[in-house]
Amino acid sequence: xxxxxELKSLVPFTAESxxxxxxxxxxxxxxxxxxxxxxxxxxxxxxxxxxxxxxxLPRGAVSEPVEDVDPYYCVKRNTxxxxxxxxxxxxxxxxxxxxxxxxxxxxxxAAIKVLVHPLFRLxxxxxxxxxxxxxxxxxxxxxxxxIENTLLGIYTFEILVKVIARGVWAGSFSFLGDPWNWLxxxxxxxxxxxxFSPVTTLxxxxxxxxxRILKIIPLNQGLQSxxxxxxxxxxxxxxxxxxxxxFLTVFSLLGMGLxxxxxxxxCLRWPQENENGTLHNKTGIQxxxxxRENFYYLESERDALLCGNRTxxxxxxxxxxxxKKGMNPDNGFTSFDNFGWALLAMFRLMTQDYPELLYHQILxxxxxxxxxFFVMVSFWFAFYMxxxxxxxxxxxxxxxxxxxSEKSEDTEPKFQQPGKEHEERMETAEMKTxxxxxxxxxPTSINTTLDILEETSLGHKEEPETxxxxxxxxxxxFAKTCFIWKCSPCWIKLSEFADRIITHPFADLFIVICxxxxxxxxxxxxxxxxxxxxxxxxxxxxxxxxxxTIEMILKVIALHPYGYFQISWNIFDSLIVFFGxxxxxxxxxxxxxxxxxxxxxxxxxxxxGPPFKALMRILGNTLVALKDLVLLLFIFxxxxxxxxxxxxxxxxxxxxxxxxxxxQLPRWHMSDFFHAYMNVxxxxxxxxxxxxxxxxxxxxxxxxxPFYMMVILIGNLLILYLFVALVSSFSxxxxxxxxxxxxxxxxxxxxxxxxxxxxxxxxxxxxxxxxATETTDQRCDASIxxxxxxxxxxxxxxxxxxxKYKEKSSGTxxxxxxxxxxxxxxxxxxxxxTVPIASGESDIENLDNKETRSKxxxxxxxxxxxxxxxxxxxxxxxxxxxxxxxxxxxxxxxLHKNGYERKSSLGQLSRESRNGKIWKNIRKTCCKIVENSxxxxxIGLVTLLSTGTLALEDIYIDQRKTIKILLEYADMIFxxxxxxxxxxxxVAYGFKAYFSNNWYKLDFLVVIVFxxxxxxxxxxxxxxxxxxxxxxxxxVLSQFxxxxxxxxxxxxxxxxxxxVFLVCLMTWLLFSIIGVHLFAGKFYECIDxxxxxxxxxxxxxxxxxxxxxxxxxxxxWENAKLNFDNVGNSFLxxxxxxxxxxxxxxxxxxxxxxxxxxxxNFENNLYMYTYFIVFVVFGLxxxxxxxxxxxxxxxxxxxxxxxxxxxxxxVKQKKQYRSLKKLLYADxxxxxxxxxxxxxxxxxxxxxxxxxxxxxxxxICFQATTIMIQNDEQGSQMEAAVYWMNSxxxxxxxxxxxxxxxxxxxxxFTNAWNVHDFTVVVFxxxxxxxxxxIGQYFVPPSLVQLILLSRVVHILxxxxxxxxxxxxxxxxxLSLPALLNISLLIFLVMFIYAIFGMYSFAxxxxxxxxxxVSNFETFGSSMLCLFQVTIFSGWDGMLDAIFNxxxxxxxxxxxxxxxxxxxxxxxxxxxxFYFVSYILIxxxxxxxxxxxxxxxxxxIPSKKKARTLSEDDFKKFFQVWNRFDPDxxxxxxxxxxxxxxxxxxxxxxxxxxxxxxxxxxDLPMAAGDRIHCLDILLAFTxxxxxxxxxxxxxxSEIESGxxxxxxxxxxxxxxxxxxxxxxxxxxxxxxxxxxxxxRLRQNDKNISDIPIKGHDRDDPASKSVHSDKTExxxxxxxxx
Length: 1680
Fold this sequence. Notes:
Distance between the termini: 42 Å
Helix content: 55-70%
Radius of gyration: 42 Å
Shape: globular
Largest sheet: 3 strands, antiparallel
Mean pLDDT: 78
Number of strands: 11
């Protein structure tokens, strides 16, 4: 048999081949390890084409069995191959096992020929597609059943062919060896049963038929490979899935303990005669039965108002009491009454589906304090799980991408290269021929045409091979003859003229201006629009079409049609012109319009924008590479819609009265395919809980929950993988890509315009220049004295800096600013500025200052500065000495040369010198003050206090007079303190240095805010100025380094994305204009003022009929608050669709729209859903991938610039990060010592045994199970059983604590886990005993259970729980410092916006999203609202309430008790700005949070492999060294090296025997066989770290650090090394043994010369000599 994958020719499969296979099968048991090295060849997999290296197929080899050319399958799988005419490989098992015919059977051969024929595969594919289309029909005609029977016959025939050809069970290539055949067989059998048997009422059997759609997957090789990749990804996600279920279980149990039964608390109307009774007695009265009409309902709410007994919970209105009656909200499906419903609620919170409703329900029933629980679940838990899944999917995708690239490089046949080169040569020759032809026909316009053709040829080379479509040669000749025009000289001159026009830079600029104006004209359309403006838009449209037409004609004349249509942008332009002309021709024909294609015109701007072209190229290449994944996603969505329609369609029709009072189908159902498809699309967008409630009402829990979980989990996995692939592709985007010729022309035109304007201005200002020069000269002396008075120390410390100062003072040179300084957020003053500021100043926080200082002075100047300066300020301590006098003399001589010499007396100079000293002393004092650490701490404290006091100014501040007065005085004090600080810094640093620091600019802005707020309080007409005080919170940014670091990082990662952001913005503008064209003026409806519902169409059809039905003074014809009447409203509506908040109502209005001024009708325009589907895909998903991909790219670039460190943490945190990383990467901790006492030793062995830990984990799980089995309606016996079970668990955990205390003694409390266990035991015992002392009413019954439940975190304990959990939690723990810094910034943003919301929306009318829980009345409620907006939920309802600004919606004169503010109206413009800006900022911060965690997760495998050393390792090294070198000679004897290496701690530790490894290190040795400390340290470090440039740099740093720490190191000259010494020893041994052998041979020779009697004595001697020689030879070989 073959043992190597060498090529062999195709050999027919004969009886001899079968005999060889059978012989090999018989010998396989005895030769199990013979062929283990064989692996399958990726080129020869089943379903792929046979490589052409095997030559052409012989005639008899097509559809006939041949020997397998892959040794792996031939040897191990016992297969043969069959090739069809397309060279596709099919494999079959040769050995008959079960119901498998012989390979030489005529029946099997006939079946194989049918199976491998391409038409058979095509027949099956057409049948499956036809069947899939038939399945989506709701009420098919009768003749469809005949087609279905035919298709069933085809499927049955296919199964028979496969069974005969492959056998039932004969290995992996048999019929049952393929899982897809199992699915096919099952579906066919179920379909036969349901079609030809009386059992036709089983709904599930009918729905199983829809699995036939999945048969498309095995018919496509690309889809199969994607499925295999996703299965591998799912395997890697298994640990994350288990961890997610663990956390969901824990949070569900916690929710059960906290909220069980609380959602049944409702406000119930109570009879007036029973008002004297207590509340808890009222609930026990059975005579009063609570009916639905007795509960309190808010307006437009379907569930009764919830309430609670806590002070911060919801309160009932007067006449109602809070009782626990009725069912849970949402038809009883939302509750924490048992584990199942609690788990569903937690899963809903994790997926962020309608979470604001659950928040409000729990906070109404339990209290606002439990918002902490939802913050943990909805934000941190959901965020971490999403990051974890994204990280694993990203890792899987990158590995698969790398594997495919390596595979393509290894398996690409070499013979294909000459073919490709030949094709490229043919294309190049063809292009050259075309150029020559055009050169002959139009020699005057050669340059432009040839340039365009060259660009076209380069563009064709970049296209993939699959996109090239070859045409016959005759077509090329025809094109050259007909479309390269050869005309008269007049035509040639015209072509020249057109060429000069289209290539002129101002031509491109003119077209860009026209496109921009066209976009503005398109965006001006709105409703209602005046006739004059509409006429202007029509005329403008005609003008623009004319301009585009002229441009096209000129380009056709200049380039010829052949060259014109070679460019894709020209084809796009011609289409725009064509559709524009068609619109003009069809303008007067009703029902025909192409106006929706107008917005495509501004896509022309992409030609002039490099980001657009680069992004589109990346997107096109990525989608081509991911076409199979996109197709699989579409198939899954289609299958889910059909499956849901068949499974639940009839149930919706039969049980519709359960979900609708009028017994009409709701908008979201599954009775037909389109509604089912939209339902699945909505689920994949993240909204599923609302439709799940309806599904459970009509079809039950058993079918709905599994179906929904399948769609959500599998669909999100596909979307997640596609998202990761797109982000990974866009992360390769480079903003510095090549610029197109059109963009260069635009830049050239703009530069010419600027040059012209400058020239005109210069001519105008030419006369004024002389006057300005004279004025400057007159002021020269004053400026010189100002510059001389304050030179810095670095400027006068050496000659070079002095010369710089001289040039700067003369005004001839400006201080250079580095690129990093110009881009930095903090532009601190450089050392060359004339400001007395210390070089190490902490306020000027720019790392680039070091570089600037190094340029402004050398090392000598720095030393002089250190020696001469005795304070923190730089120039104050230096008296006016020779340097300053030299500067003054230089300036004086310079002025004398210019003719402006001034005379001064010696007394005047001395007075100025004294004044300068006084001023410098003042600056010195101010500098000392502002640089003092206590002053900085004081300012930081004042900043926090001034910011925190803003939270007290809520709507109740007028009722708290004392606090209000104190706050007013505090504001004044804070303002004076900040003004004083600003003045001190002005004096200390100077204005230039102060205002060159952006953080100080921010402080200056805050001071202005304080002043404005104080001014606003003095006069009532300036009260609006006082509302800007919320900006005071911005000062916190400049006081805390953590926030500075995060803000800098955000700016660095965000600013480079502006080009991509503009592309995304233009995409939204496109959809906005389309939305205006589709829906402008169509969202108006006639509302019944009594019921608040819309009139039906049969009562009111249009606006005129509605106005005739006025029931009161107000107009009932109302517009939707979110509409598409103009581009601004369209943007806001699309934002709500993008965040999936309020998008359902927007889509409902669009689907119901009929026409302008027409009454909407229910689902009148159903297919308008497609507009929103297209927007979600192309306006949300793809732009989101672009933005995140570019942000990831910038993140990686900035991270690489910083040496791979995290840029969201400070320098101090980086040291903590390294310590934390080392601690987390450590394999084990140092255990506690074992006690000497036998009993304690026995207990120690017991508690440290692994079985004991397993028992404890099982007890924790059993305790959690006791909570799972509970429910809200359990009886007293169950409660007693739970009480005793909790008591048993407390006793067992107490026993565990006592045993560990006995075993560990004081070491017990050195472990944080043990401290936690001890605390749990103490609180559990207290929880059991507390009800006995103070009563059970004051102690929650679930207190002990929740305390014991906290021990479940032991499952995550390193070394105790599953290792997979620890590995998955590692990324979160390592990224905690960065996440905490980012969280601080998020909190600050939330704080500022919460204060802003309190000032702007505190008195808004409570409706929609603003209620008693979520409002802006107090700081806590505002933070709750902003938390909802942070997770993109519920902000649509808040904005809807803020939109109430008219008399019909609110009361502007309403009196608010306790305050002077009147009215409850909102401000729509302020509300839009408020929510939109906060959403963008929070989204940006949260995206970076995801990136931090994911990047940390992706770097964990490499960090585990890379071995690093820390400062602690080096400290331990020197501690051990001191034991071996007590005299500190820095040397140890080479004989001690082995013991020294064995005494070190890991990772420098080297276990014995280690002499061989130490010798191999080749350590230098000094006299006396001594080895130096530094040499050992460097060698051991290199052994641990390996060989790398980074390691070499680290070694040099270690050596330099050692030399600095030991300046008196004893110099020595190494005389040898350990390796040389070992070689010398081995050589000496060899020489000695050779000499000994020589002596032995000489002795033997002498003895042989002496005759000896008795040969018996010689035998032992000779044997011994021989044995000695043999041993000597062996030892010599060993030594060598």
